[in-house]
Amino acid sequence: MPKRRKWPNVMTKIGFIGAGKVGTALAVQLSNKGYPVVAVASRTFASAEKLAEAVPGCKAYENVQRIADNTDLIFITTPDDAILEVVSQIKWHKGNLVVHCSGAGSLDILETAQKTGAQVGAIHPLQSFASVEQAIKNIPGSTFGIEGDGPIVDLLEEMAKSLDGKAIQLGAGDKVLYHAAAVMACNYFVTLMQMSTDVWGKFGVDTNDAIEALGPLLKGTVNNIINAGLPNCLTGPIARGDAGTIQMHVDALKAKAPKLLKMYCDLGLETIPIGIAKGTLDKQKAEEIKNILEDK
Length: 296
Ligand SMILES: NC(=O)c1ccc[n+]([C@@H]2O[C@H](COP(=O)([O-])OP(=O)(O)OC[C@H]3O[C@@H](n4cnc5c(N)ncnc54)[C@H](OP(=O)(O)O)[C@@H]3O)[C@@H](O)[C@H]2O)c1
Prior knowledge:
By secondary structure, the protein is an alpha/beta fold. It folds into two domains: 14-174, Rossmann fold; 185-295. It is 54% helix and 12% strand. It contains 14 helices and eight strands. It binds NADP nicotinamide-adenine-dinucleotide phosphate. NADP nicotinamide-adenine-dinucleotide phosphate binds at residues 17-23, 42-44, 47, 64, 77-80, 82, 85-86, 100-103, 124-125, 127-129.
């Protein structure tokens, strides 16, 4: 494999198009680490001005073209669906480095820029950003999925490291699966919490109280996943082989929350091999639990 050239050791001027959660968080944190973030434009000037106010030396522009004209490395941090349109409306320069932060989108959405001689790449913060403030806090230490060819990859990897993060390189064909997995680990975790709190609602606990009560359990589980790893982090009735408990769950859900029964059983079936791999669920108990979950 040919050795990649190192990116020239010059301060690359950075601009942002899209002043939302990710754009603002990256701009603030890169600036904190000494990267010169000098220009921003957004759909509305008000958002661009707000980002510029948070980053010393950054100027807000009304027109996105000014970002390509005044900076070397341009982050396109608009929603995924707007990236193609934004890239197509700009006259790119040969030296521009154009980067998006989409998790599922690949480099083909930057093709127009590449055709005019710009180098293209992608850097996806593998993190969940619900608000600008929280995004600024969560960026450091995140993992960054990086895609590209040649020296732009070095530059993006260096940035990930500067942000105390970990860089993983992705090929174009990996991106959608990488993102689907992230959606399961992150967004569907939220869905599971919604379902769990709905079940608590059946015995009169409101959603916020349920979140407060289940929160420490959730944090403990995340710690176990990170510290003990798979499959050792698995606890609970399936790991113990408590078929009677699973039968009671199925009966109660059937009676009080039938809409959630299928999901409970499907996830239970996926949990059986984890219990077996951990070594605490024997084959006979696994079969018993499987029959209960398949029977519904
Ligand atoms: N949120 C996450 O958890 C997360 C995590 C990792 C990666 N990402 C990726 O990061 C990117 C940005 O996501 P986000 O969550 O930061 O989105 P966001 O908070 O909705 O911000 C998007 C920004 O883009 C601006 N915008 C929309 N259309 C535009 C256009 N045509 N031209 C110029 N600016 C435009 C909006 O401008 P105005 O404010 O001016 O209206 C808004 O400030 C996406 O590619 C997303 O997939 C998101």
